[in-house]
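ok, trying the design again with the full structure, not the truncated one.
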């Protein structure tokens, strides 16, 4: 028995099923390709962002923050950002350390240059000190040798004594400067401040300077008005003497030294102006440092040790004041200005203190461990007691009034 059916009717369902499956597969493949393209583009974009971040990180720049739908890529970007922050911190720390190293190196270089400058100043000071001490000692030695011969006439004797006295005073001036510098550096100077008429003090100092050999041939003028300060009279006199002597030392013979005193904005202002060699621009900032001085003029035999202006600055600052120097340049003179706090004139104050009458007799104890100094001073004091305080030194008749050093 046979059954027959058309092939088309039997194969049609299978054919449709195959066609549907093929179409579904093609659609699935197309959908997969579409999805893969989308995710691939996102992945490529994320990797490109990560690549740019890595490049920026390698260039030392901060990567731009970026997010994507891929957690792993976002983690990579975050890691790159953290690495960038760490690198920036390390770079900043390295830069700070480098800056500190440069500053330390600069300070070390400046300290080395300052030490070399001070060493040169020290060598120059020692050489100058030896020269300044040798000259008066040689003159004193020659005068003493002449006196030892015993054949000198009275004129030669007086001249020898005058040489010894003048050179002794120069040596005393040098030693006083050295001792004052030592006391200042050790902080052992104590001021005895009191109300002081600065006009009278300056006038007295100028009168004393005019009577010295150093002021011969110079025109020293003084203009002022009464100004009172609270200061140590001895130290104020030392300040004025150092400034005036400095002006005389660097001025040509016959030049003018003008000293002025005025009150400005509650300050007593003293100016010392000369027409001398002036101060060079490179020396001006260091003029008040110890052992620093300009070249000595050829017409002066004593160049000094370079401590007078340093003493002036320290003493002025101890009084609560300030001192400045100005100059138009070499050969155009200089001006030194001292400013001190001014005070009102005390009630009942006198311009000149009254001298108390000395007692008829006094007892004096002189202590000295140097036998030669003790012997000569004993004889000198005995002679003064016998002559009423008068004695002859060289060709000058002198009288001791007041306490000595």
């Amino acid at each position: 028995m046979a059954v027959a059916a058309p092939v088309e009717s039997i194969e049609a369902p299978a054919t449709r099923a195959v066609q549907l499956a093929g179409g579904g597969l093609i659609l699935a493949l197309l959908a997969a390709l579409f999805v893969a393209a989308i995710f691939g583009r996102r992945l490529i974009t994320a990797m490109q962002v990560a690549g740019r971040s890595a490049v920026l990180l390698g260039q030392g720049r901060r990567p731009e923050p970026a997010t994507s739908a891929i957690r792993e890529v976002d983690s990579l970007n975050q890691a790159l950002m953290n690495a960038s922050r760490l690198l920036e911190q390390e770079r900043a720390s390295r830069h700070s350390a480098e800056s500190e190293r440069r500053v330390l190196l600069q300070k070390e270089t400046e300290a080395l240059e300052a030490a070399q400058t001070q060493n040169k100043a020290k060598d120059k000071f020692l050489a100058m000190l030896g020269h300044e001490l040798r000259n008066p000692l040689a003159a004193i030695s020659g005068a003493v040798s002449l006196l030892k011969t015993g054949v000198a006439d009275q004129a030669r004797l007086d001249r020898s004594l005058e040489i010894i006295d003048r050179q002794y005073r120069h040596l005393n001036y040098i030693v006083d400067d050295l001792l004052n510098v030592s006391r200042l550096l050790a902080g052992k100077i104590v001021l005895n401040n009191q109300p002081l008429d600065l006009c009278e003090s300056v006038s007295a100092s100028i009168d004393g300077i005019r009577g010295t050999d150093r002021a011969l041939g110079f025109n020293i003028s003084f203009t002022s008005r009464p100004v009172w300060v609270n200061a140590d009279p001895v130290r104020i006199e030392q300040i004025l003497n150092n400034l005036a002597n400095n002006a005389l030392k660097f001025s040509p013979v016959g030049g003018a030294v003008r000293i002025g005193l005025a009150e400005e904005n509650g300050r007593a202002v003293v100016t010392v102006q000369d027409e001398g060699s002036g101060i060079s621009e490179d020396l001006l900032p260091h003029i008040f440092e110890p052992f620093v001085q300009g070249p000595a003029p050829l017409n002066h035999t004593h160049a000094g040790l370079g401590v007078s202006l340093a003493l002036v600055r320290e003493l002025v600052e101890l009084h609560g004041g300030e001192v400045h120097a100005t100059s138009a340049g070499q050969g155009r003179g200089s001006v030194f200005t001292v400013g001190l706090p001014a005070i009102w004139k005390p009630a009942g104050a006198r311009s000149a203190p009254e001298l108390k009458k000395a007692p008829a007799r006094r007892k004096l104890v002189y202590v000295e461990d140097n036998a030669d100094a003790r012997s000569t001073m004993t004889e000198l004091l005995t002679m003064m007691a016998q002559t009423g305080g008068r004695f002859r030194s060289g060709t000058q008749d002198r009288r001791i009034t007041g306490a000595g050093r």
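Keeping the full-length input from now on. The beta strands are 194-197, 219-223, 228-231, 256-264, 267-274, 322-327, 334-343, 390-393, 396-399.
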